[in-house]
Amino acid sequence: MLIAKCAFLSYIFVKPTSCESGLICASKKSKNEPFVNYKRDSIFIDRNGELRNFNHKKVSRKKGGSLRGRGWKYGSGFVDGIFPVLSPIAQQILKFVQKEEDANRIWDSLDTLPSNHTTWDDVLTVAVQLRLNKQWDPIILICKWLLYRSSFQPDVICYNLLIDAYGQKSLYEKAESTYFELVEGRCIPTEDTYALLVKAYCASNLFEKAEAVFVEMRQNGLLPSTIVYNAYIDGLIRGRNSQKAIEIFERMKRDHCQPSTETYTMLINLYGKANKSYMALKVFREMRSQKCKPNICTFTALVNAFARDGLCEKAEEFFEQLQEVGLEPDVYAYNALMEAYSRAGYPYGAAEIFSLMQHMGCEPDRASYNIMVDAYGRAGLHEDAQAVFEEMKRLGVTPTMKSHMLLLCAYSRTVCCTSMGE
After folding, report:
1. 117-132 vs 156-168: helix axis angle to the nearest 10?
2. What is the rounded CA–CA span in Å between residue 248 and residue 250?
3. CA 64 centroid distance within chain
4. Quick one: how far is CA 305 from the chain centroid?
5. What sign has the CA pseudo-torsion 116, 119, 123, 128?
6. Contact in structure between 249 and 287 (CB atoms under 8 Å)
7. Are 140 and 166 in contact (CB under 8 A)?
8. How are the residues of the chain apportioned to helix, strand and coil, as percentages rounded to the nearest 5?
9. Largest alpha-carbon pair distance within the chain?
């Protein structure tokens, strides 16, 4: 076993089978206390979810570490969609900042780390992992340490993560000031920087300021990209400004900015939630005419759109198309099809899809059980609805307020049907 001591905590790590004792190297921190480190695993998960190896000698010799100057890909969660496995030191940092609330203690501990490429990559990887966990406060503390306290040169990836964290907390003024610091620090904003700033303004319903970002980009000689337009459309939809989102989508095309799969999927979702499945279908056909490849989210959005209108045959048609193009239905796709049968008044059709989902090895979630309770309830089959509810609890799926309300509605419909019959 390897025992690693650091300012955060003392942890015991089981030595990987691929790690030989000759690869272990010792460094020192303050007060000559040993700080055990070792050669990092050369493993990462690519965008297809496959484990792959890479040579650190080829990617970690750039000034400031392998991540420096490469920015951070908005929407993908990490640089170029790569999610490196956290090193043992990074894991210690992550656990410490998740538990510790005192900023000074966190910064004092980070000060003990050696100022090298490995530390840079470890700390940035931790920040991105925190983002995946939606833990914005620790991200702010880490990025502020990197930018204002450490000996590292400020980099656009730090500013981008900090802008994103402030935006998520609806602290648009701090997101804005961070952008100005980025510019004053002679860092070059990336398209992700502008997208995150737009998103921060939209989160605070400051759509005029979001528009100003487009002006800022053009003044800097940049044409607004698909990523920036997507951030704006997404922000408008979240802000329940659907009409403006549609207008921006049309403006995007007029500006000769090619919509992406994500763009079209957002518009399909928008129309689906507005019970305009015919418009969702129109957007999908436009998408195909532009040779833009739909993904699992696109098909699920379409199935959902038809489900809301009770068009189970159309929903089933696109569920089949999803499989024909080689995509594997996930729990969201199955739920969407179950919803279609439920709304069309076919509870046993929904039950068949529920069974199929289990047979195919797809685990039903809480929403799946809620849909089944609702499906039986709509048909006045309160006993079946109750049975699903009980099975849900038996399997350890905690019912929500919505679950109880759906069951209550199932019983109320049965009473109404009985009263009408009398």
Report:
1. 20
2. 5
3. 27
4. 22
5. positive
6. no
7. yes
8. 65, 5, 30
9. 88
Q: How do residues 332-345 score in pLDDT, each as one tens digit?
A: 999 999 999 998 88
Pairing of strands 10-13, 2-5: antiparallel
* SS3 state at 35: strand
Asked if residues 15 and 1 have their Cβ atoms less than 8 Å apart, the reply is yes
pLDDT tens, position by position, 93-126:
999 999 988 899 999 999 999 888 888 888 988 9
- Pairwise CA distance, residues 40 & 87, whole Å: 6
CB-based contact 337:356 (threshold 8 Å): no
Q: Which residue has the tokens 């459309």?
A: 233
Quote the tokens at residue 331: 């729990």
Both tokens of 330, joined, read 């996930």
* C-alpha closest to that of 157 among 130, 183, 193: 193
Task: Give the per-residue pLDDT at 414.
Answer: 66
Q: Distance of CA 191 to CAs 36, 58, 196, 229, Å?
A: 39, 26, 9, 10
* CA distances, 390 to each of 229, 335, 407 (Å): 46, 19, 11
Round to whole Å and give the CA distance between 403 and 392: 10
Tokens of 205: 């319903």
Amino acid (1-letter code) at residue 33: E
